[in-house]
Amino acid sequence: MDGGSRAMIKSLRGRLFISLTTVVVLTGLVGGVFAHRWAFDEAIETQDSVLIQIAGLVQSGGLTGTQDLHGVDEDAEVWLMELGKTPQGTPEERQLWRLQDGMRDATRKGRPVRVVLRTRSDGSRFAVAQSTGVRDEIAGDMAFRTVLPIAALIPCLMLVIAFVIARSLRPMVRLADELDARPADDMTALPLHDLPSELNPFVSSINGLLRRVHDMMEQQRRFIADAAHELRTPLTALSLQAENLDQVDLPPAARERLAVLRQGMRRSKHLLEQLLALARHDATPSDRAQWEVVELDRTARGVIADLLREAIRRGVDLGFARAEPVPVRGEPVMLSAMIRNLIDNALRFVPEGGRIDVAIYQDGATCMLQIEDTGPGVSADEIDRIFEPFFRGQRPEGEGVGLGLAIVKRIVDRLGGSIEAVNMTEAGRTGLRVVVKLPAATV
Ligand SMILES: Nc1ncnc2c1ncn2[C@@H]1O[C@H](COP(=O)(O)OP(=O)(O)O)[C@@H](O)[C@H]1O
Ligand SMILES: [Mg+2]
């Protein structure tokens, strides 16, 4: 999958994650605040009713003296304050005495307290007081314990959301990976099963597009093949006529022109053969099942044997620098066409006394084919274009039409490999190095 589509899915994932977690966090916050308040109020009320119960106990005579109360719960800071039958004692106690019976807020020794005031039947009054600070602390503790599970749940929910989003988007990522891993000419439809139904229209559209591209490529391929084929017949007839003319007694000037004519015809024939080859190696993946395992070094040996005589004629040293048996999957014809085109180019550009080194070896799961020559190489501004059909550069040699490397590129693509041409500039020498990488066959 390329960076663009990955980033798109990532941002979709990011957007989902951010919006869902925002909702969760906000819900948690609002819920937490309310739960905290309710629990706090509830705890205060509970403490109030405890104070009232203690006051009831004191009034019924079941509980007397401050000691008793401290014995109940010292931490809770609950005091019984005897106020007498008339206002007396500290100003605070006198002030308390004047309040009516019931639940009140007051101060004790300068600190705020919650008190329950009662009057006994003999007219004496008392107050059961509890420090407001302690009460708030206890209520705060209880409220905090109510909120704790909510707070703990939020990170858990965020994890679950991230997991669910990743899981839901996985089919999309898988689909993109599957498309990326395909050879350029693989136009088979994407499978619709195992996919969430939301992706179905999307996949159907891609499949429709693949079908249309396939049809278009097929049409184009057939047109080239048909055109080349149609042209071959009249050209053969013309060649025959030219051959016949050669037998006839001709003045030297006419014979000279005839030679030019025949050379032009040879070129045209070569162009047609190359066009046919190009069309043949274009987008026909259906025959992949019939490919056989071929030892590439053996194929190369055959091609070199064929071209050796031409190499000797040109005074070029053509041979192997390294030849290891490497199996690749393909048709022998297309593999030898590939090697022949590459060596043929090198032969045309290498000057007399030069050399062409072919190397074939295995590098892990890759089959390496390397062809190095001592020719002039390709100028820097042309090297990116030499695989384009009909590109011949500024120094074309021989009778080529600029289709050789385009054919080679298509064969390499079809085999699922890659090709690269680099100029060799080490130690003042020149030359072109073409490196073909093919997936090695497992036998
Ligand atoms: N070994 C080489 N050394 C230098 N230039 C090369 C070599 N191979 C290819 N080229 C350049 O790439 C061009 C395209 O090659 P190719 O497609 O085989 O076409 P053709 O051989 O018909 O000219 C050639 O015209 C030439 O400019
Ligand atoms: Mg060529």
Automatic annotation (TrEMBL):
CDD domains, per the entry: HATPase (cd00075), HisKA (cd00082)
Superkingdom field: Bacteria
Listed GO CC annotations: plasma membrane
Cited SUPFAM superfamilies: ATPase domain of HSP90 chaperone/DNA topoisomerase II/histidine kinase, Homodimeric domain of signal transducing histidine kinase
GO molecular function, one term: phosphorelay sensor kinase activity
Histidine kinase domain location: 226-442
Catalytically driven reaction(s): ATP + protein L-histidine = ADP + protein N-phospho-L-histidine
Coarse class of the protein's main subcellular location: membrane
EC number: 2.7.13.3
Keyword field: Kinase, Membrane, Phosphoprotein, Transferase, Transmembrane, Transmembrane helix, Two-component regulatory system
Topology of the protein relative to the lipid bilayer: Multi-pass membrane protein
Subcellular location: Membrane
Protein name per its UniProtKB record: histidine kinase
Record-annotated membrane-spanning stretches: 147-166
